[in-house]
Task: inverse folding
């Protein structure tokens, strides 16, 4: 009878552990889904920020090019005036 009780206790413990493992597996799957969703959201945000920054960099580059050209023209005008004297 003692052996039978021990076996019943062992089986009950195994069932409880099995249930806990299943719960943990379910929770892990849910957490994985959350992490994957968050990862996709973050990657989309990074892509958006990268596109915005690239556009702003192109605009700044164009402005610098324009200013450089205007500076060169101004310097050329100044040089011509100095040489005309």
Result:
């Amino acid at each position: 009878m003692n052996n039978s009780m021990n076996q019943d206790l062992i089986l009950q413990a195994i069932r409880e552990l099995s249930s806990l493992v299943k719960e943990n597996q379910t929770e892990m799957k849910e957490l994985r889904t959350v992490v994957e969703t968050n990862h996709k959201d973050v990657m989309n945000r990074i892509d958006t920020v990268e596109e915005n920054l690239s556009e702003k960099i192109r605009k700044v580059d164009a402005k610098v090019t324009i200013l450089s050209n205007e500076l060169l023209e101004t310097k050329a005008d100044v040089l011509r005036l100095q040489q005309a004297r």
Summary: The helical segments are 2-84. The CA atoms of residues 42 and 61 lie 28 Å apart.
